Target: RCC1-like domain-containing protein
Amino acid sequence: MWSKSFAGMRKHNLIRNLKGESWRRWICSEPPRKRFAALWGNGDYGRLGLSSLESQWSPVVCSAFENQSLKAIACGGAHTLFLTETGRVYATGLNDFGQLGIQKNTSYALDPLEVSGLGKEILQISAGYHHSSAITVDGELYMWGKNSNGQLGLGKKAANVIPVPTKVECLSGIFIKLAALGSEHSVAVTDAGRVLSWGEGGSGRLGHGQESSILGFLRSTSEYTPRLIKKLEGVKVKTAAAGLLHSACIDENGCVFIFGERTVDKMVFQDRNNATTPSLVSKLPYSEDVSCGGYHTCIVTSGGELYSWGSNDNGCLGIGSTYVFNSPEKVQGPFSKSTVYKVSCGWKHTAAISGNVFTWGWGGSHGTFSDDGHSSGGQLGHGNDVDYIQPNMVNFGKNVKALEVSCGFNHTVFLSICF
Model:
């Protein structure tokens, strides 16, 4: 469908060579040691930022940040965001709904381009399926991309597509600590631990109690501006996550709350009759980190244990089978003797950090969303597109420490440093 220029091919070959000693010379130089991003998976629309549409079955260093150090990364549906140590945001990939936040009128970008209009230092970024967000150093929330269901929180009169970062004015005076973006909804946590949500309200994913009638019609519409989740009032939340049709959060006591009615058969609640408002997940140790995927959820405990539950398509739970688990199941394998401290869920694949990066689930060999032979595979980074039902280490070389990992629909990025 697309053709590559000669210059683009030369640059792509250079990037491939960066997997050898050359990338170590500029990343691992002293001082300082740079934080770098390595990407793999589906290459359609340039979501890997490697000047190419080709998929990658093994990690490839993004050379676009050769002269900068990265602070954070975030994978969306078919786009990727990068946050530098200096607080600047870059984006690459699909831009059909303005999710890249660039002034350039293009349907996709093959290389990371700086996001327009963010005049302040950015501390946190998040990417949804077709929308994006950034939080400034003083707690202001900016959003851009698809807004057909109010997922940008800019009010009912806002356009369906917002191609440049726009401040969520109704939150002025409220310090936003973090934002989590799902398929068509958004969740935010304030510095006081209060939780707001907005966007598509179907399936109860916002936690406001929207339910379906007997005929399947929603009793209430989506939320076009951020709304406090009433059932979490009095609960101080420290982190949150958003998936396809559900959301989750963890409070200061390490308790996990989850909401989303269409996932009720795949997840465990103390109160199964109230899945459209936050319900406490029972039988979990003190939890630190949570991530929501298509129809599965993972948490990391304070002791470094990993638990997963929900749909287990293609083995995305990592428990050694494809059986559905309706209650949290401890992920063993390589984690039985090592601790986990980060986890990220994609559509049907999962990644975790335990010293190294481990991935499992959908490799891409079953089903494709691409045309003209562009593979949908490689998101596990194991050199192939087959499924793995247990965690398997991504081979990237020695003396590399993984700091953060993010899964998109069918691509993966990890942030690392040499030691």
In short: The chain has two helices and 28 strands.
